């Protein structure tokens, strides 16, 4: 016994519409095509399903077959939708925005993870400041972004990113396990404003200490060079660790404070299937605090990987 979706769809449409002509309009077919499909189903079952009256009505067998036909069509539609979703997520391009430190410290391991699990998705990376990233998402310049502490909590948590003092190796506090911000009062504070300054202000507020900034520079490389030159110290998130040269050290700063790194799509519009696939793939990873030191084990999202990428738009490997 060979049944097909067209037969079942025509039968259900005729019953729901009350006639062959109305069903043909709903299905976008000719009335003869609908009539032929129903007649073919009846021949397959060796019994009529519909009494050709005005309006039509089902026979005893039609009453039995109708709910099964509806269920079968729902299942077939679900299968088709699943296939379409799979096809959509196995290919396509995602424009991903992130801050330079995230691009350099966290993104290489993510790109490797996605390349292994979603090889047909092409990822183009934009580097920018936190405000730029939000603007790119809002304007659809970017399809997804790694953002800091999103207010709505949407997306997939990548890591909890604590803050550290960046000190020269010969600094008196360089060998400590942790350093209180009050102990840095005599050192000029140098910061890069890319989304971290508000967190550092919070640390000083929690400590009850006055926040005094000596220099503000945009580029992290410039900041590192200034600390190397003995012009001051800085406070950086742990995700910056791969960028710290050997003559500098990161020491956990107290009061303890951290931020959340989250992968998400745009607000106010649907996330594309490839973006959803990236988020779902990340959700399968175990998230946690980024490793607070080189002597502690690093998770899959907090490994010291990759070279420093350029600020230009680029494609994933």
Write the layout of secondary structure elements.
Layout: H1 5-17, H2 20-27, H3 31-45, E1 50-51, E2 57-58, H4 60-89, E3 92-98, H5 100-105, H6 107-117, E4 121-127, H7 130-138, E5 144-148, E6 156-168, E7 178-180, E8 190-191, H8 197-207, E9 215-216, H9 220-228, E10 234-237, E11 248-254, E12 258-264, H10 273-283, E13 288-289, E14 314-315
Parallel strand pairs: 3-4, 3-5, 6-13, 7-11, 8-9
Antiparallel strand pairs: 1-2, 4-14, 5-12, 6-10, 6-11, 6-12
Helix pairs in contact: 1-2, 1-3, 1-4, 2-3
Summarize the structure.
With 317 residues, this protein is of the alpha/beta class. Helix content is 39%, strand content 21%.
Task: Tell me what the structure shows.
The protein has 317 residues and is of the alpha/beta class. The protein is built from ten helices and 14 strands. Strands 3, 4, 5, 6, 7, 10, 11, 12, 13 and 14 form a ten-stranded mixed beta sheet that branches. A two-stranded antiparallel sheet has the order 1-2. A two-stranded parallel sheet has the order 8-9. Helix 1 packs across helix 2 (20-27). It is rod-shaped.
Outline the biggest β-sheet.
10 strands, mixed
Q: What fraction, in percent, of the residue positions are helical? A: 25-40%
Pick out the low-confidence regions: 287-317
User: What structural category do the secondary elements indicate?
Assistant: alpha/beta
In N-to-C order, the SSE pattern is HHHEEHEHHEHEEEEHEHEEEHEE
Q: What is the approximate shape?
A: rod-shaped
Alpha-carbon distance between the termini? Answer: 51 Å
Q: Please, what is the average pLDDT?
A: 84
Strand content: 15-25%
Number of strands: 14
- Radius of gyration equals 30 Å
What is the number of helices? Answer: 10
């Amino acid at each position: 016994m060979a049944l097909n979706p067209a037969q079942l769809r025509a039968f259900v449409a005729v019953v729901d519409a009350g006639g062959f002509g109305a069903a043909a309009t709903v299905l976008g077919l000719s009335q003869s095509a609908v009539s032929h499909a129903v007649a073919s189903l009846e021949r397959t079952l060796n019994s009529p399903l519909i009494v050709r009256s005005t309006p039509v009505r089902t026979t005893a067998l039609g009453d039995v077959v109708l709910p099964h036909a509806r269920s079968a069509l729902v299942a077939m539609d679900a299968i088709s939708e699943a296939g379409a979703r799979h096809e959509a997520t196995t290919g396509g391009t995602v424009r991903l925005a992130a801050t330079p430190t995230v691009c350099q410290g966290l993104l290489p391991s993510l790109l490797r993870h996605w390349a292994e699990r979603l090889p047909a998705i092409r990822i183009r990376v934009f580097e920018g400041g936190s405000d730029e990233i939000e603007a790119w998402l809002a304007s659809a310049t970017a399809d997804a972004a790694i953002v800091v502490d999103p207010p709505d909590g949407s997306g997939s948590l990548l890591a909890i990113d604590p803050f550290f003092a960046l000190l020269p190796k010969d600094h008196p506090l360089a060998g400590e396990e942790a350093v209180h911000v009050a102990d840095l009062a005599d050192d000029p504070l140098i910061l890069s404003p890319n989304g971290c300054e508000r967190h550092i202000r919070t640390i000083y507020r929690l400590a009850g200490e006055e926040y005094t900034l000596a220099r503000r520079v945009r580029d992290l490389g410039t900041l590192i060079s200034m600390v190397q030159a003995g012009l001051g110290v800085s406070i950086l998130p742990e995700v910056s660790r791969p960028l710290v040269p050997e003559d500098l050290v990161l020491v956990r700063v107290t009061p303890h404070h951290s931020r959340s790194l989250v992968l998400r799509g745009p607000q106010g519009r649907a996330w594309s299937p490839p973006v959803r696939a990236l988020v779902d793939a990340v959700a399968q990873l175990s998230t946690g605090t980024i490793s607070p030191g080189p002597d502690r084990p690093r998770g899959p999202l907090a490994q010291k990987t990759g070279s420093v990428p350029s600020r230009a738009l680029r494609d994933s490997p």
